[in-house]
Amino acid sequence: MTExxxxxxxxxxxxxxxxxxxxxxxxxxxxxxxxxxxxRYSGAALAMASPADTQEVAGLVALCAEHGVAxxxxxxxxGMSGGATPDGSGxxxxxxxxxMDRIRELDAEAGQAVCEAGVILQTLHEETARQRMRFPxxxxxxxxxxxxxLVSTNAGGTQVxxxxxxxxxxxxxxxxxxxxxxxxxxxxxxxxNRGFDLKQLLIGSEGxxxxxxxxxxxxxxxxxxxxxxxxxxxxxxxARKLLLLAQRLAxxxxxxxxxMPAHCLASVLDHxxxxxxxxxxxxxxxxxxxxxxxxxxxxxxxxxAERVLVAGMEAGLVEDATIAANETQAEDxxxxxxxxxxxxxxxxPAMQHDISVPVEDMAGFVAKTVPEVERRFEGCxxxxxxxxxxxxxxxxxxAPRGAERGAWEDGEGxxxxxFVHDRVTAWRGSISAEHGIGQMKRDELGRLGDPVAxxxxxxxxxxxxxxxxxxxxxxxxxxxxxPSA
Length: 485
Known about the structure:
Layout: H1 4-22, E1 23-24, H2 27-30, E2 47-49, H3 54-67, E3 71-74, E4 93-96, E5 103-107, E6 112-116, H4 121-130, E7 133-134, H5 147-152, H6 160-163, H7 166-169, E8 170-176, E9 182-185, H8 198-202, E10 211-218, E11 220-221, E12 223-233, H9 236-250, E13 254-261, H10 262-271, E14 285-294, H11 301-314, E15 318-323, H12 327-338, H13 340-347, E16 350-356, H14 362-376, E17 381-387, E18 392-398, H15 407-426, H16 442-448, H17 451-464
Parallel strand pairs: 2-4, 3-4
Antiparallel strand pairs: 1-2, 5-6, 6-10, 7-11, 8-9, 8-10, 12-14, 12-15, 13-14, 16-18, 17-18
Helix pairs in contact: 1-3, 9-11, 9-14, 10-13
């Protein structure tokens, strides 16, 4: 859209459609939403739309399609890969789903909730708890992450070990497609063989194939109790063996198994002035383990936790351990884990990699790759922490002392990420386990992805969004012979 008259006509129609609460061009109102949460990407927008319901989204998308205006959907703006930040052209419409924050339905008997895209994850947790139910996905950013964003990035979190990613929680979906039509696939059916499962195609597509406006989610009964353990170990290999032991002894009760090296715990203790280490001694690695049970089955949890830890000690895996005495202490343990990323970020510049390899290979990958990175990039420190139980580790490489934030990431940092991604690929892994591709990893996906898979992704994008207006420049790598965006 190049003609000034066309642009003004488009903007006026968009404002008429959405009203004063749903449309703004005020630079001050838009500014907080034009830079991503990690402050790695900043852009500009033609305007910011904040529709109140699905029909307004559909009307806006149809208008954008008519005028060839790109759309960048955004939820809580808490993504880690720059997937919700527009480019610097100022020609895209920033589409905020935050006003669409209704829980349309919460049926405890059916174990389902229908949430609009702007519902905050923590709000859903609180509402389900009032019905003695729970939504089995959580993460550190639950106070800002929205349901639409979680669906669009197929988010993970700390309960994937037992319950799976967001993809496993979605029973139905409502989305607006690139021409403004509404896909209504909200009904949950146990059996439905009417062709492609289109909701699964949209989950994880980062707004490049359609804009998620609502989702039907599965709920579970609230837990009757939990036992949260903290164990000190010598190596990540010992942590892997303890995980296998816990899976054998605790089976269905094992809900979370997180690990971090000593450096991460020390960083958190420095970052949180009132925090204390759960254990007295020094340990190379730490494991945070959670067992849960439904109501009426919780009495034996502490006994089960003790069995796991005693077995770990007898096997020479656990050097020291403790079980949270109450809910406050359990939450304190989890706060230590959830604070690793901000604590590491406070130290200085770092390249943060959200990677996965086969679960059985993760301990070996970390043990081998950490020293490889530190040898190759002098002065850097590599730390790995996260969800050992599902093969997803956050692999951070901290800059040398004195490195300039921004310049280091754009220089040596890029070489570090390429090296880490090469190693992940060699280990049959993924360069994005739960944070999406966005704009940060799009070119790396193009460099390392399977050619057949990449060709298929481009074909699907072309079929569903032929004008390329939905979140351009994100997720889908350009074809080798395509002009740069």
